[in-house]
Amino acid sequence: MTKTNRLRVRTGMIAATATLLLFGAVAPAVASNPTSDAHQTAASTPLPEGSDEHYAGSQIMKHEGRSGSPDPRVASVTQTHGMDVSGWQGTVDWNKAARDGAHFSYVKATEGTGFRNKDFAHQYNGSYNAGLIRGAYHFALPDRSNGATQAKFFVSNGGGWSADGKTLPPALDIEYNPYGNTCYGLSQSQMVTWIRDFSNEVHRLTSRYPTIYTSTSWWQTCTGNNGSFGATNPLWVARYAGSVGTLPNGWGFQTIWQYSDSGIFPGDQNWFNGAPDRLKALANG
């Protein structure tokens, strides 16, 4: 390096140092990826609020797994077959599902207060047009906003109810947190309050208490096995085994049992606990 070039480099370094002394060092920008860490805190980059991958039982399967499924031909009591779907299934052949024996379906409508199932309209209307009794469900994110706020968002985006004999009560899907802490960072009493606020707001807006979808294990862990909802809210329980097993406290029976995440119908496989006329009675309220 020539003497002249060495002088230029030295002069440039002195100028850069002076600039740092006057204005302070500036850290380089770092591109953020909101989905790269499922355990981010509220103070960091916000997590997305919803996904087609979050559907009824998606997190229960990850945490609890499966240990078989019942044989529909040997039900001990009258059961009525049905299904539930979300944006994960996309376009559904509802006429085929009806021919295969589906009598009802729940369809994911919303998640949190920022996610709508893009396939909701044609899934919800398609099931109705094929003769199924259908209802809408909401995937809860209790750490994002309060229960009443999410209930309003849900009812405004497909979670309503009408006494037409073809619409099931709205449903709340409350299960393991897909983004981190099992109970969303809420205490058991806070979780009970959140669910009650959601339930009461849905009832205020629709005149129906929502069906509660959950697993016994999650309910015991995150609500302390609270028994105060059985008198008002139908139970939709998830358990992928040969029997329904122990139910959450407060319910003497399940209204719907989600017994498998795959089978003859698209989406998850369900049994309504009764004959088709009782399913219609549930729809009528």
TrEMBL record:
Cross-referenced CDD domains: GH25_CH-type
Family: Belongs to the glycosyl hydrolase 25 family.
Entries under InterPro entries matching the protein: GH, Glyco_hydro_25, Glyco_hydro_25_AS, Glyco_hydro_fam25_subgr
Highest taxon listed in the record's lineage: Bacteria
Enzyme Commission number(s) from the entry: 3.2.1.17
Signal peptide region: 1-31
GO biological process: carbohydrate catabolic process; cell wall macromolecule catabolic process; defense response to bacterium; killing of cells of another organism; peptidoglycan catabolic process
PANTHER family referenced in this protein's UniProt entry, alphabetically: LYSOZYME (PTHR34135)
Organism: Actinoalloteichus hymeniacidonis
Described function: This enzyme has both lysozyme (acetylmuramidase) and diacetylmuramidase activities.
Chief location of this protein within or outside the cell: secreted
Subcellular location: Secreted
Region (Disordered): 32-54
One Pfam entry name: Glyco_hydro_25
Protein name per UniProt: Lysozyme
Keywords: Antimicrobial, Bacteriolytic enzyme, Disulfide bond, Glycosidase, Hydrolase, Secreted, Signal
GO molecular function: lysozyme activity
Ranges annotated as biased composition (Polar residues): 32-44
PROSITE patterns: GLYCOSYL_HYDROL_F25_1, GLYCOSYL_HYDROL_F25_2
